[in-house]
Amino acid sequence: MDMTNDAKDTLKEDDNGLQGALVAVGVNTGAVKALVGGRDYFQTPYNRALQNNRQPGSGFKPFLYYGVLESLDKTPADVMVDKPVAIPVAGKPLWKPRNFKRTYSGPMVIKKAFTESVNTVAAQLVRSVGPDAVIHTARRCGITSPLGSVYSVALGTFGVSPLEMAAAYATFASGGVRHSPYWIRRVEDVSGRVLEEHIITGERVLNESITYQLVDMMAGVIDEGTGNVVRRMGFSLPAAGKTGTTNDYNDAWFTGFTSNLSTSVWVGFDRGQGMRDKNGAGITGARGAAPIWAQFMKQATQGEPPRAFLAPPDIYFKKVNPKTGSMAGFWTRNPVSVALRKGGS
Fold this sequence. Notes:
Elements: H1 5-10, E1 18-26, E2 32-36, H2 61-71, E3 79-82, E4 87-89, E5 92-95, E6 106-109, H3 110-115, H4 119-129, H5 131-141, H6 162-173, E7 177-178, E8 186-188, E9 194-197, E10 203-204, H7 208-224, H8 229-232, E11 240-245, E12 251-257, E13 261-269, H9 285-288, H10 290-300, E14 315-320, E15 336-341
Antiparallel strand pairs: 1-2, 1-13, 3-6, 4-5, 7-10, 8-9, 11-12, 12-13, 14-15
Helix pairs in contact: 2-4, 2-5, 2-7
């Protein structure tokens, strides 16, 4: 798997052993369109796209936020406070998750907390909704790896594979319809007789309108949040996604989708040591994985017309103050557009 020039430039020169994996899945079929299990099969045949179960970090937050919108009667315009948190855990020390930047920004609407990947807000939300709600959403979307019923599951502390992530995110892209990933569409003999054929079927597992609210927040990640490197690299089609970075920069993820294709990229060392650049700064999902995703998606979608994610009839949009959630006025600085449901949250 070739790294982009941008990704190569950020890493130390002694990056021997740095690995990557990529999986692309058809949103409306589940067909595995592309799979890369490592940089060089002849160097190591281990398939990281399927066999690698690495922590996805904040890449798991969409499962939390769907549960919050579904169960807590909250909206993307509701306000949370980015502040230090200490959450009691039975029989264990206080859980004190921190933001990667080690700073706190105070009040902010939920959509902004998501697009900026604020860990302290996510921690408060998982305490309210419960870890089982996160797991329930992940399972509905197709995540099959073992997940523990602990608060930190919302911050991606249990391993998953890139195939699972690409397929699960495809469920969001399809408006809440899950298609199980498959490899072979049809098998024919020499005479053209069909010996085996995969019948494409989908199952609705998520509410369409709530899913759209989540997709709108995930689009914000790419347009103005932690994944905006995708736009800077010239990928212009409507898209949504989420960055993921684990403790000590051991894993860098970016999983995202258009209306047709869902792709997950992981970068890291097999032995789990942290990734740092020539200046000692940690390599995040935005720096290590998102550039690879953007380069791949530009090629994979070449020639496709822009296809927006279709909003259900009960969705409407509102621009709000990012700190108060109230209707944005003429003087509101950096208003946030949120997707709301008529007669609901």
